[in-house]
Specification:
Keywords: Ribonucleoprotein, Ribosomal protein, RNA-binding, rRNA-binding
GO biological process, one term: translation
CATH class of the largest domain: Alpha Beta
GO cellular component, one term: ribonucleoprotein complex
Radius of gyration: 27 Å
CATH superfamily of the largest domain: Ribosomal protein L4/L1
Structural class: alpha/beta
Family: Belongs to the universal ribosomal protein uL4 family.
Largest sheet: 6 strands, mixed
Strand order of the largest sheet: 2-1-3-6-4-5
Number of domains: 2
Strand content: 5-15%
Distance between the termini: 13 Å
Protein name: Large ribosomal subunit protein uL4
Shape: elongated
């Protein structure tokens, strides 16, 4: 089993934690991680964009001028795409962009992302994060102590004080274990997990 150092919020090492190899030590599957990221981005699209084709724009039934003798190019309708107010060529229509992955693929993608962070030495485990009040400067100092100024911070359950304290730090995002995604893990430079978050992740994915 791989082991990692556990730090307190002051950045001091307090203990060593054994990680489950079936979650944090799997063979990294880049293809499934790519599918998971593409899927999350695609599934977040509304797919409501719509424009009218020339057959749907009102008017334009009458030929604007006769075919020959005017000096103009021949035109059949004022609703052709080259006319102002005309239809759109290959107009976008509402559609479903969602990408489906089966459960095992999603789980392996998540394990691959977690294993990749550990392999790159970008996984930081902290014993606990407890804030007395909502304070951005205090939370920023904690991340500086952990040498993770640009990171995804994962707690077992949603912690409102942590979430609100991190809101104004541009390169930081907080989430609970039940909202963890492959996209967020790969997007941020470092992954900061609380000790109980590690246990919750291993319970779900082991």
């Amino acid at each position: 089993m791989a082991s990692v150092k556990v730090y307190d919020i002051e950045g001091k090492e307090v203990e060593t934690l054994e990680l489950n190899d079936s979650v944090f030590g799997v063979e990294i599957n880049e293809h499934l991680m790519h599918l998971a990221v593409v899927g999350q981005l695609a599934n977040s699209r509304q797919g409501t964009q719509s424009a009218k084709t020339r057959s749907e724009v009102s008017g334009g039934g009458r030929k604007p001028w006769r075919q020959k003798g005017t000096g103009h190019a021949r035109q059949g309708s004022t609703r052709s795409p080259q006319w102002t107010g005309g239809g759109v060529v290959f107009a976008p229509k509402p559609r479903d962009y969602s990408v489906k992955m089966n459960k095992k693929e999603k789980q392996l993608a998540m394990k691959s992302a977690l294993s990749a962070k550990l392999a790159e030495d970008k996984l930081v485990v902290v014993d606990k994060i407890e804030l007395e009040e909502v304070k951005t400067s205090v939370f920023a100092k904690i991340l500086a102590n952990l040498k993770a100024p640009k990171s995804l911070v994962v707690t077992k359950d949603k912690n409102d004080k942590v979430v609100l304290s991190a809101n104004n730090i541009p390169a930081v995002k907080t989430t609970a274990t039940n909202s963890l995604s492959v996209y967020d893990i790969l997007k941020y430079d470092k992954l900061v997990l609380t000790k109980d978050a590690v246990a919750a992740i291993e319970e779900v994915y082991a």
